Amino acid sequence: DRSLKIAPSILSADFANFGAEIQAVEAKGADWIHVDVMDGHFVPNITFGPATCAAIRPHIKTVMDVHLMIAPVDPYIEAFAAAGADFITAHVEAGPHIHRTLQAIRATGAKAGLALNPGTPAEAVAPLLDMVDMVCVMTVNPGFGGQKFIHSCVDKVRTLRSLIGDREIHIEIDGGVDPTTAPLVRAAGADVLVAGSAVFRGGSVSNPAPYGENIRAI
Ligand code: DX5
Ligand code: ZN
Q: What's the average pLDDT block by block, 10 residues per block, for the chain (218 residues)?
């Protein structure tokens, strides 16, 4: 299914109010909820772990899309699966054994995603395409919301689309997605658009109308 899916990243939500923030963006049209897990090691920022994922799970009616920016990954896969992740995405750069990591994700029953940093070529996923349900193209360097979209990544999306061929694999874009960059990656073949700052800006749990306007604008 290559229809457009908007996945607000709760990295840009009110951290003291995740349950209500999730309900608000889902009510305003979010298709998936994107959950950014950072360890202060693979990326220079720390967010939260499996316990927070488990706590927010009952508030998500759509799809829980967990993006692991952690290394190592393997010791934590079971915990994120038990927390209720529908998709678990690991970075191809996170360790020497990404093939094993993808096997371990699928063994839990979760769908497997593979993320690529801006400096990693599309071809890095070629040997793994029969093991993934989604490829996540980072269009910023991971670690923070609100960064500028890196335009050179658009060509990579096009290359990936042709490598994927007719396999059932989502292409997700993560970083700097807004109404000006979204059409570029859609045209290049992406179907899942993560957006943090572009969804949450201007709104709040007590004033959620901007969330709907922002989602529609993407
Ligand atoms: C970045 C995260 C993204 C981030 C996107 O490391 O993986 O999901 O929240 O934020 P925006 O949309 O503000 O670039
Ligand atoms: Zn992310």
A: 96 98 98 98 98 98 98 98 99 97 98 98 97 98 98 98 97 98 98 98 98 98
* Confidence at residue 88, expressed as pLDDT on a 0 to 100 scale: 99
Question: What is residue 1's predicted lDDT score, i.e. its pLDDT?
Answer: 86
Domain range for residue 68?
Answer: 5-217
Evaluate: CB of 8 within 6 angstroms of ligand 1.
Answer: no
Domains held by the chain: number: 1
Please tell me if the CB atom of residue 194 comes closer than 6 angstroms to any atom of ligand 1: yes
Burial 31-60 (b: 16+ CB within 10 A, else e): bbbbbbbbbeebbeeebbbbebbeebbeeb
Atom 6 of ligand 1, residue of closest alpha carbon: 142
pTM of the model as a whole: 0.98
Residue from 129, 131, 139, 138 nearest 161 by CA: 129
Per-residue model confidence (pLDDT) at position 174: 98
Tell me the C-alpha distance between 130 and 44, whole Å. 31
For residue 172, report the phi and psi dihedrals to the nearest 5 degrees.
Answer: -110, 140
Which residue, 80, 74, 96, 5, is CA-closest to 37?
A: 80
Yes or no: say if 71 and 92 are a contact pair by the CB < 8 Å rule.
no
Give the CATH number for residue 149.
3.20.20.70
Closest among 205, 139, 152 to 178, alpha carbons compared: 139
203 annotated to a ligand binding site: no
